[in-house]
Amino acid sequence: MDVTHEGSSTMIFIDKISNTRMIMENALAGKFFKPCFHLNLKKSLVLQKKKGIGTSYKFCYPSKLKIHPPVSHTLNLSNLEVGGVEIQETSYEGLVSDQEIVWPSPDDEIPFWKRDFPSWNVNPEVPNESSVKDSDLMHIIHVTAEMAPIAKVGGLGDVVTGLARASLSRGHTVDIVLPFYECIQKQQINDLALISTYNSYHDGNWIPTNAYRGVVSGIPVIFIEPSNEFFKGQQVYGGSYNELEAYLFFSRACLEWMQVTGTQPDIIHVHEWQIGALPLLYWDMYRYLSLKKPRIVLTIHNMEHYGECRQEQLSKCGLDGSMYATAEKAVDDRTIGHNPERLSLLKGGIVYSNAVVTVSPTYLKETLCSGWLASTLMMHCDKYFGILNGIDTAMWNPATDVFLPAKFHAQKIEGKKLCKYYIQRGLGLAAKSITSSNHVPDATVKIPLVVCITRLVPQKGLHLITHALKHVEELGGQMIVLGKAPDGRVEGEFKHLADLVTSLRNCISIEEYNHNQGPSIRILLMYSEELSHMLYAAADMVLVPSMYEPCGLSQIIGMRYGSVPVVRKTGGLADTVFDMDDQSNPEIANGFVFEGIDEGSLNWALDRAFSYYRDKPVEWNGIVKKVIEIDNSWNNTAGKYIELYNSVRGRS
Ligand code: ADP
């Protein structure tokens, strides 16, 4: 092993696997740095440059050491920290070599995103060495309809898991309570065990209910399983039971479980309309039983869904629905004077929670100015806050992501090119003639690749997504849409688009192909977590043309994987992406932004992005590195939630 010092960085030449242990031993003996180490047998092996202490390094030793020989034998310790996040020992495996890549093909019997991946994130240890530790510790229980990765439909699942892990790492006690959906990915739950059997009320009956406990991604999770038909089916939403009533039952069953087990958290953090009745049930029922301590925080991830509910439906959870049919409580203001008037669980949740959060400052402003809930939010504006979502940078990390055929980070970006070519080959976007060799052809990887990973719903700008497919093709680029449409008609339209027959004139003949087999477009109508990771890594640009977007994670994740965002200026997109051509604030410029909802506006942004990519490659590489290094982690924003929890604690 050779150790050399170059300026502030230390180079270690490793020739054998066992030498990694030797590095640790030498480091522990203080052989090559002024050591500032820390022995913790529970943690994974981490070489981490300590911030602000010159060349001191902190070493944590693993209990189960998994060492893989680095493909590049030279490790630059100055590179080990990416975007403020420590890179684990396994992370440099495959960073730069393509020798081990098994190149995929569209003809593979098992599609490449369904191959077996090394286990990862099944239960990654919650980072307990977060730079921030809070002194005043709390017990926080999240009550939610979604949680990544076991029951994720969109960003809600990511946010709950990311915020819970960030709060845990700051020292708090955190649990998540989730319905035990039949479709839940049980193989990702560790230590699953039945912890209590109790009865919870629904519609005049006490329903026998099981509570299980398990650990998911390092977070303790309580699963509520009623013995009736609720939460049965092959997907999180859209089962054949009454969804609204199922979540009313779930909201009460969570409080009932706390009541029967004597669990009194400081904070019950509820999410979205699904759990909107919990604050009502707490303040008007359970507080008069034995639950006294908790205070309620509601996060609204999307104001489009407000939990429309009839009075008699609300009564099914044991409250008197008619009591809430007033403008000050839960009536849907638009139905006042109609017969029947309707309630909104989201409005009730806003009124009855101690604090209400939405997921970006700009969306907060937008919701105070438009939409029927604006007047309620204005009335409660002293307890209404905009806190930008973060992402879990351990789960979304291109330097360690097991789904990527090659890893990369801002200082070693070559792996990104391999990821792109992998996708191009796997989806048949690379010319057939060159796919037999392992050579990565420059001409193919130079074609600009745009991805759009989204639920296919009107909010996401469906007309702009379909237009982008056409325009990117005209610009000579490639575009992949990975999306699931809950509405059959939308799915049909995208299927139709995928099957459209196009003619391609080459020098000798006219070739006909349908879009999804041609050289530039792929429309993949499905949900795949694995493929989404690969696409973020492969893309040059990530497109988010939403009509409105409370926060948006797709652009944030895309940036973490070096994909430059092209977004419409709305909600959280306006808070996270800043135009490259806006001269007023060049330091924060990180993407391409358009304002209009028309095709011309989108063209303008795409045209500029393509020109940058093609005409200014050096600048483009600079943007790619810059976006990878932007810190949109929960480390940045979880503290705002903790401050908020503290401010409502103990308040009546
Ligand atoms: P929303 O919550 O409105 O769906 P966000 O951008 O906040 O939008 O979050 C979307 C999350 O869901 C991201 O993690 C994105 O990668 C993921 N996602 C969306 N559609 C798919 C899909 N078809 N396959 C895999 N992941 C998807």
TrEMBL record:
Q: Where is the Glycosyl transferase family domain?
A: 448-610
Extract the NCBIfam families matched here. glgA
- Coarse class of the primary localization is plastid
- Protein's organism: Salix dunnii
Under the heading InterPro entries, the entry gives: Glyco_trans_1, GS/SS, Starch_synth_cat_dom
Cite the entry's keywords alphabetically: Amyloplast, Chloroplast, Glycosyltransferase, Plastid, Starch biosynthesis, Transferase, Transit peptide
Catalysed reaction, written as an equation: [(1->4)-alpha-D-glucosyl](n) + ADP-alpha-D-glucose = [(1->4)-alpha-D-glucosyl](n+1) + ADP + H(+)
Residues folding into a coiled coil are none
Recorded GO cellular component terms are: amyloplast; chloroplast
Q: What is its EC number?
A: 2.4.1.-
The record, for PANTHER family, names: GLYCOGEN SYNTHASE 2-RELATED, PTHR46083
Please cite one Gene Ontology biological process associated with this protein.
starch biosynthetic process
Q: What class of enzyme is it?
A: transferase
Determine if DNA damage is one of this entry's keywords: no
Name this polypeptide is given: Starch synthase, chloroplastic/amyloplastic
Q: Where in the cell is it found?
A: Plastid, Chloroplast; Plastid, Amyloplast
Gene Ontology molecular function terms on file: alpha-1,4-glucan glucosyltransferase (ADP-glucose donor) activity; alpha-1,4-glucan glucosyltransferase (UDP-glucose donor) activity
- Pathway as given in its UniProt record: Glycan biosynthesis; starch biosynthesis
The residue ranges of the Starch synthase catalytic domain are 139-367
| SUPFAM superfamilies named in the record | UDP-Glycosyltransferase/glycogen phosphorylase
